[in-house]
Design brief:
By secondary structure, the protein is of the alpha+beta class. It has four helices and nine strands; from the N terminus they run βαβαβββββαββα.
Length: 148
């Protein structure tokens, strides 16, 4: 099936160590789907809240559809994630450990279904970020030297 990327959270890879990735569907309204088809989503400050046996995508902005009229959706509303009960149970156990959180990494269409990839993440400290930047610079320099 063709995958069409809508939005990605590049900042997440800078601020967090991603330990595991999960794919989840989303319960959306019609105008949200049309807005996503136009690529109007922002995952930057988003997170996943686990509430009982449900997972909710919070603080993700999907712009209102321009031709939506009075039936348009609220841009920052919580959206239910469609995960198996076993997956939610394992995520609850893993996020109870100190320092773990769930964040959206990217949003995409898999065929006709809107999906979100969520990551089990640990926060990076300032020195971890500096080390990661230094490694990226060294790798870039090595590739330049090899090309010469």
């Amino acid at each position: 099936m063709p995958v069409k990327e809508i939005a990605s959270n590049r900042r997440a890879f800078h601020d967090y160590f991603i330990d595991e990735k999960y794919e989840a569907g989303m319960a959306l309204t019609g105008t949200e789907v049309k807005s996503l088809r136009a690529g109007k989503a922002n995952l930057r400050d988003g997170y996943v809240r686990l509430d009982g046996n449900e997972a909710w995508l919070e603080n993700v902005h999907i712009s209102p559809y321009t031709q939506g009229g009075y039936v348009n959706h609220e841009p920052m509303r919580p959206r239910k994630l469609l995960l198996h009960r076993r997956e939610i149970a394992t995520l609850i156990g893993k996020t109870r450990q100190k320092g773990f959180t769930l964040i959206p990494l990217r949003m995409y269409f898999l065929g006709n279904h809107a999906k979100v990839e969520i990551g089990l993440a640990r926060g990076k400290r300032q020195y971890d970020k500096r080390v990661a930047l230094a490694e990226a610079d060294a790798k870039r320099e090595m590739e330049r030297a090899i090309r010469r």
